């Protein structure tokens, strides 16, 4: 079963493309949801995070306050590195198990791993192809400002905290231009699906 990694910068429109791929017959694994699941109270990952960052990252119900944790590591490379070293192995294990489960059931034509940090986490090594959703920088800035009600400076800071667009594209086996109409984006996805998934099945 073909495994596709779907990635792109913040506000590139990955979730829209994910929905199209689901309708075409792909099983979607959302890396963000898998990461949230690893943070549940009393799990091994939760214990390691509390030990590293203190009980100040917890909400009253003992769940991890992702916003507080994000504020602790934002703009601090060493703390971010430590966070990733703790969380990513647990997320990777969950993703691998989910992929194996989907393959065993055999109900889908392909598996799509929707992961904003596909390259940074090394999760691209779990897939056969990397599809990058691409928009130019100004489009990205405008979308982030509108979506998250941020100033231009805040939006740029968010974008700059991610892997540069040029670096991400180096890993791409396919680039989806998401700066046009929805119809145009959909046509690109259908073409990729037919040539890279259905052709191999047939």
Automatic annotation (TrEMBL):
One of its GO terms (cellular component) is cytoplasm. It is an enzyme of class 2 (transferase). GO terms for biological process: coenzyme A biosynthetic process. Keywords: ATP-binding, Coenzyme A biosynthesis, Cytoplasm, Kinase, Nucleotide-binding, Transferase. Its EC number is 2.7.1.24. InterPro entries: Depp_CoAkinase, P-loop_NTPase. Gene3D superfamilies: P-loop containing nucleotide triphosphate hydrolases. ATP binds at residues 11-16. It is found in: Cytoplasm. SUPFAM superfamilies: P-loop containing nucleoside triphosphate hydrolases (SSF52540). It catalyses: 3'-dephospho-CoA + ATP = ADP + CoA + H(+). Pathway: Cofactor biosynthesis; coenzyme A biosynthesis; CoA from (R)-pantothenate: step 5/5. GO terms for molecular function: ATP binding; dephospho-CoA kinase activity. Its main location: cytoplasm. Pfam families: CoaE. NCBIfam families: dephospho-CoA kinase. Catalyzes the phosphorylation of the 3'-hydroxyl group of dephosphocoenzyme A to form coenzyme A. Belongs to the CoaE family. This is Dephospho-CoA kinase. It comes from Anaerobranca californiensis DSM 14826.
